Amino acid sequence: MSHKAVEIRNLSPSTYVLRLERNDFPFQPGQCVNLGIKGSGVNREYSTYSGMDDPYLEFLIKEVKGGTVSPALRKVEPGEEVELHGPYGSFVIQPEKINTASFVFIGTGTGIAPFHSFVRSYPDLDYQIIVGIRDATEQHDHQNYDSSRLTRCVSREKGNGFHGRVTDYLKQTEIALDKIYYLCGNQGMIHDAYDILRNAGVSGDQIFTEAFF
């Protein structure tokens, strides 16, 4: 399936948002797709970043130096066609929970992408976001979240939030046992954060994970 590129929005030297025409493409917030340059035969998996009812599709992408897909996608021109396959995955919020449960979204870097889609899609969602970033350049569209619901864990500089990693923050804060936790980002963080939550008494069926790398 091909979708035309609308624009590239550069957020930092390493990260950008790719916007494509929607073409009535259906997905559930939290699902991912495979993207690639048309005809290349090579694609990569990215979580949807836009909201379920947005008239466009967006993807938050980290450019991997020496990579095959992410640098090429950053160079697409408006009107150029991008291959898209999907949607895939079950990293979604169950419909009956959307307006009745309280959520904690824990991510690192571009792992905030599915949470952005959740927040855009479900305006009345009761949520907190804990996001790990290295420095201020990685505050990807943080203005789109309620600031009282967003905690930044900044590992390489001070002054923009909690100084340290996501796991450091979790070890120093009270873990609520009645919330539903979604973890997205690198596998190391997910593994460690899962253990912290479980050791605090959070039930395993209240923790959902999606590893980016």
Report the uncertain regions: none
Helix share bin: 10-25%
Number of helices: 4
CATH class of the largest domain: Alpha Beta
| SS class | alpha/beta
Q: Assign the CATH topology of the largest domain.
A: Rossmann fold
The strands making up the biggest β-sheet line up spatially as 4-3-6-1-2-5
Secondary-structure element sequence? EEEEEHEEHEEEHEHE
Largest sheet: 6 strands, antiparallel
Rounded Rg: 17 Å
The CATH architecture assignment of the largest domain turns out to be 3-Layer(aba) Sandwich
Give the strand tally.
12
Q: Please, what is the oligomeric state?
A: single chain
Assigned CATH superfamily of the largest domain: Nucleotide-binding domain of ferredoxin-NADP reductase (FNR) module
> What is the number of independent domains?
2
Silhouette: globular
User: What's the end-to-end separation, in Å?
Assistant: 25 Å
Give me some keywords for this one.
Rossmann fold; 213 residues; six-stranded antiparallel beta sheet; 12 strands; Elongation Factor Tu (Ef-tu), domain 3
Any overview of this molecule?
The protein has 213 residues and is α/β, with parallel strands linked by helices. The protein contains four helices and twelve strands; from the N terminus they run βββββαββαβββαβαβ. It has two domains: 2-88, Translation factors (Elongation Factor Tu (Ef-tu), domain 3), CATH 2.40.30; 95-211, Rossmann fold (3-Layer(aba) Sandwich). Helix 3 (166-172) packs parallel to helix 4. The two termini are 25 Å apart.
Would you summarize the structure shown here?
The chain is an alpha/beta fold. It has four helices and twelve strands. Helix 3 packs parallel to helix 4.
